[in-house]
Request: fold
Amino acid sequence: MLIAIQAMTPNALAENFNTSRQAISKHLRVLTECDLVKQEQQGREIYYSLEMEKMKEIDIWLEQIRKIWEARFNQLDKVLSTMKKQKK
Amino acid sequence: MTTNTSPFDFTVDKTKKTVFINMEFAASLSLVWDAFTKPEILDQWYAPKPYISKTKVMDFKVGGRRFYAMVGPDGQEKWALQRYTSISPKTNFKMLNAFADKDENPEPIGSNWDFNFSEEIGADGDPTTKVSITIFNESLERMEGLMEGFKAGMAMTYDNLKDVLANLQR
Reply:
């Protein structure tokens, strides 16, 4: 989440996470493919930063799913209590 | 990460591309199992109101399928196809879920669903049934494909739904 605060280079990230530049680059490649991270060339270095809008979209989508399941849960709860009454 | 107190609990692990849903019902296991596996009961609760769930085909067996639509108040139909991959009666079932067109052609993106059921008898002798659902999406693109489907299928806000439920309870 370091790049949420500022754009960083893979070298700087590797130092912060005490890992290899290769490992960081692999993570960044996957994130870039998913459009969650954007890259910007500045001279010889590539700076990476978070695509905040994209992260927000995923959260909105997950919130939708939560609401759907919460609605299903409430509805099923009522169906079950009706079924129990009918059985008695 | 969103966490609610029991009996409804919804958590997301983005790193594992998985959604976890836990629910608890004051009902027996056989009743809850029926509610998840019989189309005439599924259709009573599966679609968030004002949508209506309409199951066209349901063959609850390994290799069988449920082909159903969420029908909107405007009559618009959003079809989905679920294929059962594993069934242990009253304990667990697994399925593949994908949106589809009205001719049962599924979209290439889908997700793997795993349902677990367990019953506990309380001190008062009344049963409580727990349902745990795991929804696994192979890739973020698959998740996003799903998102488009949900956006198309769900326009209603949760507040509206609460009003509807409150009115029904009166």
